[in-house]
């Protein structure tokens, strides 16, 4: 039996909410859908509104659609692909809109993350699993965001997969989900690097 889109969406919501709880946020869930807000979190610098977008199967390219909105500082869109269970793209609404295509006929904005080694993923790598930005306003969050922004794609990969075992796990995933040969080669290079340097 085919899984309903709503089921996939709810599965993604629960995963993201679980990750937010793990990160130590206080979370509030709206009883009704108001403006596409799936949850609200409380931080030391105020409340942040979160919209969660989930994809399960992709036919050509990984993309996420959001109903058109006006960006605001306290509004974030978290994009989650079910087949990459440990990856969450925590995008400020301004960043989402700046990098999205305007789908005028359906009144939506579409961001195309593409394949694992795509230009868009490299461009947005500082937002991957970047939950600390939700605490923006604290000195620590600002410092961490600046440090992450300085990292190259290679440095970011070393941070995401800091051991041979972590790379091997990702390689297994990458082959299973038919990620691009180029990205698999990068992971192979990272595995060799860690074997030599650990």
Question: Overview of this structure, please?
Answer:
The chain has 198 residues and is of the alpha+beta class. The chain has two domains: 5-150, Trna Endonuclease, Chain: A, domain 1; 155-197. Helix content is 40%, strand content 21%. The chain has seven helices and eight strands; from the N terminus they run H-E-E-E-E-E-E-H-E-E-H-H-H-H-H. The chain has a five-stranded mixed sheet with strand order 1-2-3-5-6. Strand 5 (75-81) and strand 6 (89-92) form a beta hairpin. Helix 6 (164-176) runs antiparallel to helix 7. 24% of the residues are buried.
Mean pLDDT: 83
The radius of gyration over CA amounts to 17 Å
Indicate the overall shape: globular
Number of helices: 7
Biggest sheet details: 5 strands, mixed
**Helix amount, in percent?**
40-55%
Portion of residues in beta strands equals 15-25%
CATH class of the largest domain: Alpha Beta
Terminal-residue CA separation: 47 Å
Q: Helix-strand pattern, N to C?
A: HEEEEEEHEEHHHHH
Q: Point out poorly predicted stretches.
A: none
Order of the strands making up the biggest sheet: 1-2-3-5-6
CATH domain topology of the largest domain: Trna Endonuclease, Chain: A, domain 1
């Amino acid at each position: 039996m085919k899984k309903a889109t709503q089921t996939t969406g709810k599965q993604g919501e629960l995963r993201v909410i679980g990750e937010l709880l793990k990160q130590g946020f206080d979370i509030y869930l709206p009883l009704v859908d108001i403006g596409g807000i799936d949850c609200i979190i409380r931080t030391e610098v105020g409340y942040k509104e979160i919209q969660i977008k989930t994809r399960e199967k992709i036919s050509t390219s990984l993309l996420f659609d959001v109903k058109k909105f006006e960006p605001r500082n306290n509004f974030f869109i978290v994009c989650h692909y079910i087949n990459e269970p440990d990856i969450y793209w925590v995008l400020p609404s301004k960043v989402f809109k700046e990098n999205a295509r305007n789908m005028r006929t359906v009144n939506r904005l579409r961001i195309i993350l593409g394949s694992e080694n795509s230009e868009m993923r490299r461009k947005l790598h500082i937002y991957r699993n970047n939950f600390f930005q939700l605490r923006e306003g604290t000195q620590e969050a600002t410092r961490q965001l600046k440090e992450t922004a300085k990292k190259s794609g290679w440095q970011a990969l070393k941070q995401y997969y800091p051991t041979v075992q972590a790379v091997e796990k990702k390689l297994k995933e990458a082959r299973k989900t038919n990620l691009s040969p180029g990205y698999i080669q990068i992971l192979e290079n990272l595995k060799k690097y860690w074997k030599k340097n650990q």
